[in-house]
Write a structure and sequence with these properties.
The protein is α+β, with helices and mostly antiparallel strands. The protein has nine helices and nine strands. The termini are far apart.
Length: 248
């Protein structure tokens, strides 16, 4: 197990989280930009699960987009335990065959799944309030910033790039959140006016441009979700993000 250096006392530890938990040194402060990254990811693929010992201090982010997770790991710094292979494409296909979810699942149609798990931290524990109802639910106090929305979009968003017509962005509401007005108001507060239907927030052509411009630059691994001017470039960047060998 690699040793980590505590930024407060300068000593190295195999289990630096235990060092902080014992009160020997303070937990590292999480800056605003990183809090926004975590909140945006929690709106999508991220979670703060309850562990076997009853603690709630770990942030977990699983994803097939390894390039993005490597960026996320870098941004997390000492709070991250690294990018780890969770399940191979073959294992995922086998699981879906055995569960009956997809009886004909084949490994070539899947990607390896990776995950990043944080070290325990009071801020992660504070995010457990999202689960008070028994499932993840966006708190009433939530508001969007470009960075928060960006992380939500890369996790749950889609850019519909068709052969004809201009691209349109959307965000899937995976947790069956029934607060349509609340969700739309998150965007109205920042000057955007998407529509809502079938558990999906949808942006029109012009709204898509405004939405992507408002969020500014995409994070590594999700550049393709910002491509509005070229189906070829969209396909190429998406293939690169998921390690698919394609010739263009």
């Amino acid at each position: 197990m690699p040793r980590e250096t505590c930024p407060e006392c300068g000593k190295s530890f195999k289990r630096i989280g235990s060092h902080w938990a014992r009160g020997s040194c303070h937990y590292p402060e999480i800056p605003t930009y990183l809090r926004e990254i975590l909140i945006g990811c929690l709106m999508g693929d991220g979670s703060v699960p309850k562990t076997n010992d009853g603690s709630h201090g770990l942030f977990r982010l699983p994803m097939v987009n390894k390039q993005f997770l490597e960026w996320f790991d870098h941004e997390m710094g000492i709070l991250s335990t690294g990018v780890v292979l969770k399940k191979t494409a073959a294992e995922l296909a086998q699981n879906n065959r055995e569960s009956g979810f997809s009886p004909n699942a084949r490994a070539e149609n899947y990607h390896d799944m990776y995950t990043v798990i944080s070290r325990s931290h009071p801020f992660m524990r504070s995010l457990r309030r999202w689960y008070r109802s028994g499932e993840k639910r966006f708190p009433e106090s939530l508001s969007l910033t470009p960075r928060i929305a960006k992380m939500w979009y890369v996790c749950d968003g889609c850019l519909d790039v068709q052969e004809h017509g201009e691209p349109r962005a959307s965000i899937r509401i995976r947790h069956r959140d029934d607060r349509q007005d609340f969700l739309l108001n998150l965007f109205e507060e920042v000057g955007l006016s998407p529509s809502y239907g079938r558990e999906t927030i949808r942006f029109g052509v012009e709204e898509t441009r405004s939405f992507l411009d408002w969020m500014v630059n995409p994070p590594p691994g999700f550049e393709y979700k910002w491509v509005l001017d070229s189906r070829e470039r969209y396909d190429r960047l998406k293939a690169q993000a998921y390690g698919e060998a394609r010739a263009f």
